[in-house]
Specification:
single chain, 292 residues, alpha/beta, 6-stranded mixed sheet, 4-stranded mixed sheet, 12 strands, globular
């Protein structure tokens, strides 16, 4: 998790050049945080387990997450965090972005997956956090809680816990160590695997067979966090459905939310459109109703 300083620009500056932006904002960032914020925006309960530690901006993070109804568990609370901020440049013309991350952390911390999973309906993990994803996925599998993997990029540790993953949702940029990314994830043990492709269809394969979920074409304002929105909405839908046999329904719902998100500035810009947000909330509630 990071604090993102976001600049909207008409071009990326060249070396030794100074550029004035067309607007800036400061926001909570990072895949897990954006996914949790998406879950909360959809009206579901969200518990975010994300190591951060103490820095001048920790209070900003805690306050923002609390205001959005997210329960934040920080396994590194009390330890110093020297690199807490990332910088993001958003191209106004194309919606593309460039990110300078605030650094990586290698500290270890105590894991309490069973405590974190209390009252949880679905789990979303990514490849960050050292041993955390494997421990949480294993505990969730033992509790019968569906697990979604945010596969934004390949991590060496993923093969250790893909056997406990119900849906590995991979990005178009995911570079598997061998061959096709979906095939690799399935061979590594994932129950179902899918691959998003920006404006292209989401392809899935696995225990439920092959499927392709179309993505509607929309004008793009900002692609920042669209993948995080996809993963968060998918986890929220799978939690509401309560049945991994309906993964296709969950991914279909998530694709509509993620597609809508790129029409607004910022990962959560769509959630400030009351009419759109409330429509998605109603759809999510209907997903959780018994089928007759």
């Amino acid at each position: 998790m990071t604090v993102d300083v976001i600049h909207r620009v008409r071009r990326v500056p060249e070396g030794n050049a100074k550029l004035f932006d067309d607007g800036q904002s400061i926001s909570v960032g990072g895949p897990a945080a954006n996914a949790a914020r998406t879950v909360a925006a959809l009206g579901a309960r969200a518990r975010l387990v994300a190591a951060y530690g103490d820095s001048p901006v920790t209070a900003f993070l805690a306050g923002t997450l609390a205001d959005e109804g997210i329960q934040w568990v920080d396994p590194l609370a009390g330890s110093p965090n020297p690199t807490p901020v990332s910088s993001v440049l958003i191209d106004i013309g194309s919606g593309d972005r460039a990110v300078i991350a605030g650094g990586t952390r290698t500290q270890t911390y105590p894991l309490a997956p069973n405590e974190w999973l209390d009252g949880v309906d679905a789990v979303l993990i990514d490849g960050h956090g050292g041993d955390l994803p494997a421990a949480v996925a294993r505990a969730a599998r033992q509790c019968g809680i569906p697990v979604v993997l945010d596969g934004g990029s390949y991590k060496e540790t993923m093969s250790a816990y893909l056997g406990d993953v119900d849906l590995a949702l991979l990005s178009e940029d995911f570079l598997a160590p061998q061959g096709d990314s979906i095939t690799w994830a399935l061979r590594a043990g994932a129950w179902t695997a899918g691959r998003s492709a920006g404006p292209g269809a989401i392809d899935l394969d696995g225990a439920l067979g092959r499927a392709s979920i179309p993505v509607p074409s929309v004008p793009v304002v900002d692609t920042l966090g669209a993948g995080d929105v996809l993963h968060g909405a998918c986890a929220a839908a799978l939690g509401a459905l309560g049945d991994r046999q309906r993964i296709l329904d969950a991914v279909s719902f998530a694709s509509r939310v993620a597609t809508a998100s790129v029409g607004y500035p910022g990962a959560l810009g769509w959630a400030r459109d009351d009419q759109l947000r409330d429509a998605f909330r109603r759809t999510l509630r209907r997903l959780g109703l018994p089928r007759h």
